[in-house]
Amino acid sequence: MDGLILQILNGLDKGSAYALIALGLTLIFGTLGVVNFAHGALFMIGAFCAVTISKILNISYEVVDPNQTDFLGNPLKVKTPYVESWFGPEMGTSIIDWSVPLAILLTIPVMMLIGLIMERGLIKHFYSREHADQILVTFGLAIVLQEIIKYYFGANPIQTPPPEALQGVANVGAAFGMDLPYPIWRIVYFCFSLGIIGAVFAFLQFTTFGMVVRAGMADRETVGLLGINIDRRFTIMFAIAAAVAGLAGVMYAPINPPNYHMGMDFLVLSFVVVVVGGMGSLPGAVLAGFMLGILESFASTTWATTTLPGINQIIIYLVAIIVLLTRPRGLMGRKGVMEE
Amino acid sequence: MLGLNNKDTKLLIAVAVLTLLAPFILNPFPADSAMAQFNAGYPDLMQRFVIFGIFAIGFNILFGLTGYLSFGHAAFLGIGSYAAVWIFKLFTYNVVPAIALAVIMAGLFSVVIGYVSLRRSGIYFSILTLAFAQMSFALAYSVLSNPKFNLTNGETGLQVYSGDLQMFHRDSLPDLPHLFGLSMRSTYNLDLGAWSFSFNAGYYLCAIVLMLVFYLSIRIFRSPFGLMLRAIKSNQTRMSYTGLNPRPHTLAAFVISGMYAGLAGGLMAAMDPLAGAERMQWTASGEVVLMTILGGTGTLIGPVLGAGFIKYFENIFSKINDSILHEWFAFLPDGLENFMVFIVHPFIGKGWHLTLGILFMLVVIFLPGGLVEGGQRIGKWIKNRGKAKDSGATTEPAE
User: What InterPro entries does the record point to (chain B) (predicted)?
Assistant: First the structure.
């Protein structure tokens, strides 16, 4: 029993990342009807926002400290981050320590800006063209974004530790008398992603803006005829979707040290998730994200890999193939979406 | 000639001349001049031009004619490579059976994958092919290389070892892939003054295969079958209303293009007896998509041009470094020179993919027909300018 729950927990963090990226993809697809192959790149840029913030916070100046010497007897050069000298050593250290959560503050405006530029500058011109063209141009954009990141940050993964208080392992089952050791940061990530997903759904469900967007998703033309500037709202939704991907990335940085191709790795899987969930269905995307994350975790157990070697590598694709062939619209897809 | 009309015969002859004279054409600069780095006439690169040309021609039969965008074609290339290397390991270094098996295996796999994937269209088809290719990649990389059943040799890649069986191998034959005794590596170097040209047996094998498959692709494009495939692209519903079932045609196109990919994979193994799983990864599938689009989707010559273009610039751009840039911009004042080098630096060397990405985006945005359309536009412009001069007035051509 403990093992079973542990596997479910293990699947949740990856599942959260899939769900968040798939949610963003579906938002873009549902509103603008564009298949965005650059969405994985947005996730990656989010993760690199965390790297950037922690680098900026660590910018330091050197002072020669005459009281301390290194092993050769020379005066030691002490590096002090500017943050520490501004806020005092204790405050400064804890600011640096909390750099990943702090990066969220940067990520939201940066990602929304990138989203706006992307939509207005590029994707706007592709509404009237074929889906294949949209896939290709966003695929090109993904390569460009990825290479830019590679140019500035190098090709190696960059370690970005979570705050010290949230490192380590907690026994999440203690309250129920079970032994379930689980990394704290992954719990944080899961709760965070639930929060984001809840916020997106609440935004769409309970605000006027969200209501108009949902109406636009159902029938764009009619909403436009009612005198509502639906294009502008959809642009904002694109920015929100970009921000969701960025947030998913920023918090994922401590789990998986960011490198320039992580976006592509996640993108391929997220597309599978979207298709399994059903193109254009937001709950479907979230559900399929968590489901596939958990399935992947079960497939990685020793029992599964010894009975069916390699199952952990292919389970997601296998599920996708089965779902697509038996339920052509995915788990929760609506009729008439992406069908010729 | 050969059942082709005038225009196609000219195209085929042009391709034949270009591929056969490639060692001359690609080596326009003397061997020890400063421009020698732009020479592409060495065997390894020429082989890659031609092999990826074959791959792209095959991909174009599927994507260009039917409009089905496969994101998993590299899987067939990888399967072809593995099949060929297994022939080398078990039987003989002769390339004919190796390439034949490569094509057959890729064909079999594409029948299965195509049959399943083609039940859906549009983005779903892309995702299905992607899923199959990623599955093959993952399996080849990990599971199929366990000690008990080592089919792919995992990360190292499948290669021929001295202890391998090689049933029909004789000592008189070269210890490398060969065509009835003619080693694929044998190269004849011709020095003409300052120029040096190399003629490689492997390259000429690839070139002859390219001509054959190019001819085949012209025949497919011009056949009733090709017309059927175009009908699938333009309107599948209407096609089925006229009483035609589109699926067998699409499947046939899928299998043909899969076999082209297998052929390319087999040739790749024949040039260098090694097969690795990374050939099947989806980035490799993405590359052939880039080649086809860049050259011109649905055109005959486009994919070959695209493949050559990408492989040439990949090679050249990755070779340029900062000191070469400084040489180029040396005529500028110092400050400006450094500035120019700083600007250009991200796009060269390891940054080649950035250039490729930008180029690809520009082509998709402004030139959906690829290089071929670009060439046609320039041709038209020159023609119109000539006409304008003749008549002395600029007139809009009637549509």
Answer: ABC_transp_permease, LivM-like
